[in-house]
Amino acid sequence: MTVTTDQDRYRILGELMIDSRLDAAGARRPLTPVPTHLMPAPDQGPITELPSPAPPRATLDEVLPGRVAVRDYGPEPITAAELSAIFAAAETMDAESWPGERDAGVRLEFFCATWRVTGVGTGLYRYLPGRDALRRVASLPTGQEAADLVIQTEFAQAAALLVITGNLAGSLDRHGSHGHRLLLSRAGAAGHAAWLAALRLRLAGTVFAGLLPHVLRERAGADGYHRAPLLAFAVAHPATATAA
Ligand SMILES: Cc1cc2nc3c(=O)[nH]c(=O)nc-3n(C[C@H](O)[C@H](O)[C@H](O)COP(=O)(O)O)c2cc1C
Question: What's the topology of domain 68-236?
Answer without folding.
Answer: NADH Oxidase (3.40.109)
